[in-house]
Every structure is written in C-alpha cells, then in structure tokens.
Amino acid sequence: MIKDKLMEKTEHMRGRLIMENRKDKQNISNELELLKKDNEEMRLRLSAIELLLVDENNGRSKDPDLSNAVQGLSTQISSLIQDIDSLNDSL
Question: Where is this region: Disordered (predicted)?
Fold first, then answer.
C-alpha cells in the first residue's frame, strides 16, 4: 500500500516535471524568437547604413572601408540568425 502511494506520487511528480520542461522549452523558444527578431531589425538598420554610404551620383561607396565593415557585420548577424534558428529547431 505504501509502495503504491509512493509510485503514484513519483508518477505525478514525473508528469509535473515533464510539463514544466515543455513550458521551459516554449519559454526558451519564445526568447529565441525575440532574439532573432532583434537581430533581423539590426540587419535592416545596417542595410539602411549601407544605402547611406552609397554616393547617389556615381553609385560608389563614400567610404569603402566602412562599407566593408558594415557588410561584414551584416554577414555575422545573418549567421547568428541561422544559429538561432538551428538552436530553436533543436528544442
């Protein structure tokens, strides 16, 4: 009888832990999506900066070094977004 009650209690606790884990996974997924959205906004802002660096008269960069740095940062953010997606998919 005591053994049966202990088994019931253990099963109940396991079920609760599984439910909490699902909730935790959803919360983590939500945070990752917010992080991804923030990074996508940064990438859009970098695109705006790239446009500002282009001379309207001849289509060349006003500052090639800065343009390259902005492009490199944009590439890193794109890679980070892919990593966030992979991490979210692994949950």
Answer: 1-22
